[in-house]
Amino acid sequence: MSLVIENLHVSAGESPILRGLDLTVKPGEVHAIMGPNGSGKSTLAHVLMGHPSYRITKGKITLDGKTINRLAPERRAKLGLFLGFQYPIEIPGVSITAFLRASYNSLKKEKLTPIKLRRLVEEKARPLHIKADFIERPLNENFSGGEKKRNEILQMAVLEPAYAILDETDSGLDIDSLRTVAGGINALRSPRRTIVLITHYQRLLNFIKPDFVHIMLAGQIVRSGTFALAKNLEKTGYAGIKAKK
Ligand SMILES: Nc1ncnc2c1ncn2[C@@H]1O[C@H](COP(=O)(O)OP(=O)(O)O)[C@@H](O)[C@H]1O
Ligand SMILES: [Mg+2]
Q: Who lines ligand 1 at CB under 6 A?
């Protein structure tokens, strides 16, 4: 159940954004991808999920050995891929529970009745400090930044994906929400799950210790290491790191 990205080149329109990105994430591992604004982190997340705005011009992405370059987003989700968005979209008129029931029943072999699904959602919501009435609200409509992010983690907890890509799950969170969200992610660490944390700041990594840290610059991973790499970055910033050719 590894996620392997080889020499990935991606364009939006005529502009190349990712320029030869390599990454291997094995089951049970948590990898952090850090990088300055505009380095291509969200593009990577979107391309993994199959966003139609981005075109793979070279290279490949495999899940458990299966190439997914051309698969539709739904097929990728069925293979266990999940993306927590940097900017979650609002779906007016669709409640969190309705959305999760539709997602769950389309992804899983075992289908859940509304009552069972609701019980499952409530159980997963509790440790995230999400109240029972909140899960009846329309998805992301008028949610605060923290509520949106906690809701992304709730989705992940309910759907139990094999591969979770979390894009800036920490952005805009106050310290209490950060702890809650980090606790939710830590609870989902598992030998059968692959987690990629995309983050601009190092602070999330004080709560979720990644196994590996990668630094992305201008569409490439230019440095890989352990948690120490993120620690150093806090002192030096991104300025001292150079892009490859
Ligand atoms: N759909 C798109 N069309 C054109 N340019 C894009 C598109 N998406 C991203 N970009 C550009 O690609 C670069 C990387 O963006 P992004 O992946 O959002 O970076 P990050 O998440 O690291 O801040 C930026 O220069 C951005 O303007
Ligand atoms: Mg981004």
A: 12-13, 15, 17, 35, 37-43, 53
**Its pTM surpasses 0.85:** yes
pLDDT in tens, 72-123: 999 999 999 999 988 888 888 899 999 999 999 999 999 999 999 999 999 9
Tell me: the pLDDT tens digits for 163-191?
A: 999 999 988 899 999 999 999 999 999 99
Q: Which domains does the chain have, with CATH numbers?
A: 3-89+161-236 (3.40.50.300)
Ligand 1 pocket test, candidate residues 43, 55, 83, 238, most atoms within 8 A of CB: 43
d(CA 55, CA 149): 28
End-to-end CA distance of the chain: 32
Report yes or no: 28 and 191 within 8 Å, Cβ to Cβ: yes
Supply the residue whose CA is at minimum distance from atom 2 of ligand 1: 12
